[in-house]
Amino acid sequence: MATELHETLSRLLSKSDVFVEKYRLLHNQYAALKNDNDNLRRSIEKLRLENEKLQQSNDYLKMARDIAPNQDSVARTRALISQIVRDIDKCISQLNE
């Protein structure tokens, strides 16, 4: 009977050693995954802030493009002003006659 208890105790101790070793392994994996998760969360936050800044910059550029004239409209406006100046010059010369 003592040998049976000794063998049972020996099996329990070996099983508990295996259990403890698996626990340590899982605990280390958990710590590594938690660290990776924290790093990824920081990266996500950094990318989110960068995305917001780029979105705001894009909105400003769209606004500036809508407000600022493009080359075609500048050329048309200059041509129109030149035509108006010529018409005014003609009117002035007719008034002087």
Polypeptide structure, described:
By secondary structure, the protein is mainly α. The chain has one domain. It has two helices and no strands. The longest helix is centred in the middle third of the chain and has 66 residues. It is rod-shaped. The mean pLDDT is 90.
Total beta-strand segments: 0
Overall geometry = rod-shaped
Uncertain residue ranges = none
Give helix and strand order, one letter per element, not per position.
HH
- The tally of structural domains comes to 1
What would you report as the Rg, rounded to the nearest angstrom? 41 Å
Percent of residues in helices comes to over 70%
List the total number of helices. Answer: 2
Structural class call reads mainly alpha
Report how far apart the termini are: 140 Å
Major β-sheet annotation:
none
Strand fraction equals under 5%
pLDDT average, as an integer? Answer: 90
Which features would summarize this protein structure in a list?
97 residues, mainly alpha
